[in-house]
Amino acid sequence: MSSSPAGAPEPVTGDVLLVDDHELVGASLAEALCQGGERARFRPAHSVSDLYTAVQGAEPGLLVLDLDLGTDEHGRRIETIPVIPTLRSCGWRVLVLSGSSNPLRIGAALHHGGFTWVSKSAPMATLLVAIREARAGRSLLPQARREELVHRYLEWDRRQRAVRAKLATLTRREREVLDLLASGMRVQAIAEHFVVSLPTVRTQVRAVLAKLEVGAQLEAVALVRSVDAGEEAPGVPGRRVR
Q1: What are the helix and strand counts (H, E) for the chain?
Q2: Whole-angstrom Cα distance, residue 23 to residue 242?
Q3: Full-prediction pTM beyond 0.85?
Q4: At what angle do helices 187-194 and 172-182 cross, to 10 degrees?
Q5: pLDDT range class, residue 77, cuts 50, 70, 90
């Protein structure tokens, strides 16, 4: 059964634009949609700049957008979540298409303006139905599941903000000490690294623990490692994408 975000959106009148870094997926979907009578176009994109070029001059309609566009020259994921609000403000309805099933990333995409989400691993027939339904203002993603995904992301984001706020209270030297602890360096080695006394570093460590409101160095290290931990943490608007 189809569901949709509150407000029962009207059908979009513009073209269906598919933006993906995998030509086989995007081109195949566009061809199948055209054969079914839809106005659909595929545009390959391997960067955010490519994405903006793809939508430039097009009549805003339904944008079938890959959640990420591969990796950059430094091996970092090219995330599209941060640009979804801009695309929405330009009039695009965004269907997020992704090979990732990570609930945080999906929830982030939905919270920041994604209309619905469909897995790339879904059968072609399901993908085509999802696109046509999204164009008509309906979603195959059950509302309860959508709310669950968004809630999970918002809880993660709340914890991230709380940790970032605590880390922001550290002095530059305290943060350097914490980062060295997180890298596995012991207090004695840190003292030698900064050419200061052992009691000085121990005082700095106590200050770090107090500001982070934890009772042990291991807790402090776990806390700092939890910020944007892992490659699957979502990049979001207003925050540097890792």
Answers
A1: 10, 7
A2: 25
A3: no
A4: 130
A5: confident
